[in-house]
Design a protein that fits this description.
19 helices; two-stranded antiparallel ribbon; seven-stranded mixed beta sheet; Acyl-CoA dehydrogenase C-terminal domain-containing protein (chains A, B); Acyl-CoA_Oxase/DH_mid-dom_sf (chains A, B); about 55% helix; FAD (chains A, B); alpha+beta; homodimer
């Protein structure tokens, strides 16, 4: 059976040594209720829950085929109900939610680490509370006080749950195409009609009620994305006293059969004149969705870290246990029939790639979490402005770069197992199947790259990235000389140069940026990870224990062995878009 | 449902225009029975069989859970039996086998193309005849005339089938560790006892008898890989008249539950004093296996091409049909609610990556097939020597580089589908699951890389690659100036330089080459694909039709957008092995 132990020491190192969380929390009156002792207690509790309660349910759910659908009802996999009850009773649903409505008010830089453990051990399970948290965030930000009071406390006890209903069969990335209609009723409510697909947790048996947040178009709404409104559509109508009333006209039509995350019910939802209540103002639905988008997209990145950490731990253990061949430098374990495969450089290369990306990813998630906390809790306007820009810039990296590297990592981990990696019982192939969705949903990684290069870069003529690079340079200047420092300085110049090139080219070639977007996203991802290793190195440098000194080796490994990808990315960007755009559309499907 | 149309025009172009197969066949008396008319007729027949017979069975087999195991018996998926009968009656099992024993005697440079179609449409199905072909090759090369006459004709009618039994639970890459015993009997046979795992087609219901080729150790055999012998162990003993006799003491203990290729039965085989017959000489079993290894490993590369071609066709069709967003250069399809996603450079980038790798891979498979044909059919000793060295050098590329690029391709194809790519009914996720094994079995791609950099490069001080580079330079010199020519010349120098560096470093650091092997394999893969595009370009340059001229654009795309990976590979190789090897083994599993 797969193993998992939460990387608590690493998490403490990142929070405490790298980002000095205690100082940060104490300096902010809205966060002064948090300290490292609380943080560590929370992480230790989640370490137990993830390992002891949901890890085994992950494989059993997949083996049993996942969530089951029958006549509009969804049965979650065996054990999920009890585990969710325990999860809800532990207050985990509202860990990062406002205390006013029953949440725990914990900062994002802490919750990302708790979330990572759930993503490591049971991604299908994670998706049930995740959507509730997202729906709660949108309601908290945009809904009326009455709506907040009606729904949020129920979310954070786990009694009710939430969904986000955006996608329709013909409308995914391009939400301007949605057809779901919202007809106003006399008393202020709306009748919602249409079909939504890919609705995570659209129907299930973990909660008494399911509150759908639905994008729809009111009569005479402007065409495209400016004419979209957001509605609350409960599965069961809610009575004036807050109790559950009649069934609303919304139902799951089927669930999808997927590559992975089979324990998570992905539903087709049919709205047949269902009663809905507008959230915020008419035609501002997309903006309301974007409020929680930065959080949700960071969550996908954490799904990546979680899976890659799980993959790493299992692959490292297998490599240690598996005896095959002998070291090229001479027999290492003469008492055994063969040496462990860790004597082979190629196996170490794979494990070090994974570990380097994992440690940088985890630091990066905490960094972005901290930026989100500044936007939410800081009272310093300029700090909030800067953090907002930083979050805007880095959200596509958090979502797409982290999940791209995570899939690479999970594939390399599987390869460490040889043929056994392909066999279900070892859990590696499920890890890959479950992880793969993180690159696809919440906007594909290609769409993230286009967001980064367009709205976040060319639109502001590179201002966001310039400010980021300035911060990295300032940090590097504070470091003693090292390979990581030198690399950070160099990568700042390289990415600056690429950004200028892109901004220039985009002025005359409107389709240029789309064609080089993924390469640019990876360039900024590499810059970000070198920055993280710079921060890790500075925090570790003065400490003599192997735990810290090995981090300096890993940082050097990153610079020597992972960072070279930047050379390829830069060459591709400089090669431009012409060869991509010049062939006619027919070329792609012509019989060859 | 997934679509597939065999790329017959491309196959004809590669055989006829690029490799001038007709001239090659006619110039060789052992191949003068083949011509392009025959070749095209064969490919057209296989195009029909693959599309009409086995394509639909691919998904139905996977959906139904694959091969079923019950009390030692394996039931293949619905439809496989009838399809295999049709396949065998068509003479496909022995397409490339010797006419003396009932084969069709077709050259490898042709059979790789027929094989590609089966890999595209039903990889699980392909594995049943594939192992028979492999076993037939080993018997043909090493067995006695009587053994050949007993088994080979039965293989090529499809009445009997074959397996290769190498791996044991504790012994995979390191076959020197095997424990299966062969005790001699008085009459010359042996009693074989032991357990073999991961035995493809070890048990099934497609043939009357199954002939296992088994590696085992005779009493007092030398330790390690020099003490391994090869045995024929039939499921049913064969009577003197060739008819089927009693059941032998070999049986499947279970089948594996895998990530993919579920229709293929992967068996645990228990040999309990089963009667076996030695093939060739005692202690030369591993050498006998290596006879067919080059063919088998090329087959895995073709599995890659097949999957990536299937993935490409489906993704290109989906991208053409899917309307979402508008072109950045202005609306392209005003009559539709949105433009096709082919207007987005990022989608084109993915499709062009796949297509470029597919076309180069296919040409490369034919090129390696031609080299194998020279080793088998040529009467020119120096040509055979040279082709043997070339095959030795390029087999790891054919196996590992082609399958690595194929997985990248299948993942990009899945991404073109957005969320739909994750849903089973579109077939993309199965394609990835089925393909993934090609990187793992027949020696993992890491093991291939170590074979390339060790036995094929440092061992001969780079002589094989030097001769390959000399040929590429000679070819480039025959070309008119172009970007591809310039790139080929440059890459020859780059790889020459890397090779020298590796040969030098390996003299003092015995574990150096293992640590940089995969990067070197990819460098030689890039060199090979640029060479293929040089040959493709020269064949296409003079022809004005779009089909040919678009190949020149694709070649330029390859140089501009794929080849830059070489810069990253070179940097990694130059960064050496020290950072990989220096951390202690405990580091990898220490709690973090």
């Amino acid at each position: 059976m797969p193993i998992y132990n939460a990387p608590l020491k690493d998490m403490d190192f990142i929070l405490n040594d790298v980002f000095k969380a205690d100082e940060f929390w104490q300096a902010n009156e809205n966060l002064s209720h948090v300290d490292m002792a609380t943080a560590n207690a929370i992480l230790e509790e989640m370490a137990k829950f993830s390992k002891n309660v949901i890890l085994d349910l992950n494989r059993s759910a997949d083996e049993a085929g996942g969530a089951e659908f029958n006549q509009g009802e969804v049965k979650t996999p065996a054990g999920f109900k009890e585990a969710f009850k325990q999860f809800a009773e532990g207050g985990w649903v509202g860990l990062g939610a406002s205390e006013e409505f029953g949440g725990q008010g914990m900062p994002k830089m802490l919750t990302v680490l708790a979330d990572e453990m759930i993503w490591s051990t049971n991604p299908s399970f994670m998706l049930y509370p995740l959507l509730t948290v997202g729906a709660g965030m949108a309601i908290n930000d945009r809904a009326s006080q009455e709506q907040k009071e009606t729904y949020l406390p129920k979310f954070y006890t786990g009694e009710w749950s939430g969904t986000m209903c955006l996608t329709e069969p013909h409308s995914g990335t391009d939400l301007g195409l949605i057809k779901t209609k919202a007809e106003p009723n006399a008393e202020g409510s709306f009748n919602i009609s249409g079909t939504k697909i890919f609705i995570t947790s659209g129907e299930h048996d973990l909660s008494e009620n399911i509150i759908h947040l639905v994008l729809a178009k009111t009569p005479n709404a402007p065409a495209g994305s400016r004419g979209i409104s957001l509605f609350i559509v409960p599965k069961f109508n809610v009575n004036a006293d807050g109790s559950i009333g009649e069934r609303n006209a919304v139902a799951a039509g089927s669930i999808e059969h997927k590559m992975g995350i089979k324990g998570s019910a992905t539903c087709v939802m049919n709205f047949d004149g269902a009663k809905g209540f507008i959230v915020g103002k008419e035609n501002e639905g997309l903006a309301a969705m974007f409020v929680m988008m930065n959080y949700e997209r960071l969550s996908m990145g954490i799904q990546g870290i979680g899976a890659a950490e799980f993959a790493y731990q299992n692959a490292a253990q297998y490599a240690t246990d598996r005896l095959q061949g002998r070291s090229a430098t001479g027999v290492q374990s003469p008492e055994k029939p063969a040496d462990s495969i860790l004597v082979h450089g190629d196996v170490r290369r794979m494990l070090l790639n994974i570990r380097a990306n994992n440690e940088a990813s985890r630091a990066f998630a905490v960094y972005v979490g901290q930026q989100l906390d500044i936007t939410k809790f800081s009272t310093d306007e300029e700090a909030v402005r800067k953090a907002n820009d930083r979050v805007a810039l880095l959200t596509p990296i958090a979502k797409a770069y982290l999940t791209d590297k995570a899939l690479d990592s999970a594939l390399e981990a599987q390869m460490c197992f040889g043929g056994h990696g392909y066999i279900r019982e070892w859990g590696m192939e499920q890890c890959i199947r479950d992880l793969r969705i993180s690159q696809i949903y919440e906007g594909t990684n290609g769409v993230q790259a286009i967001d980064l290069i367009g709205r976040k870069t060319t639109k502001c003529s590179g201002a966001f990235i310039a400010e980021y690079i300035a911060d990295i340079r300032e940090f590097a200047a504070s470091m003693a000389d090292s390979k990581v420092k030198a690399a950070a300085v160099q990568v700042c110049s390289d990415v600056e140069d690429l950004t200028q090139f892109i901004v220039e080219q985009s002025k005359t070639a409107p389709d240029f940026s789309n064609a080089v977007a993924v390469d640019y996203l990876h360039a900024v991802g590499l810059l970000s990870f070198v920055y993280m290793f710079a921060r890790i190195s500075q925090a570790a440098a003065a400490k003599p224990e192997a735990f810290y000194q090995n981090k300096l080796v890993l940082a050097d490994y990153y610079v020597a062995k992972v960072l070279p990808d930047l050379a390829a990315r830069a060459q591709r960007i400089k090669a431009g878009s012409e060869l991509i755009m010049q062939l006619p559309e027919e070329y792609f499907t012509a019989q060859s």
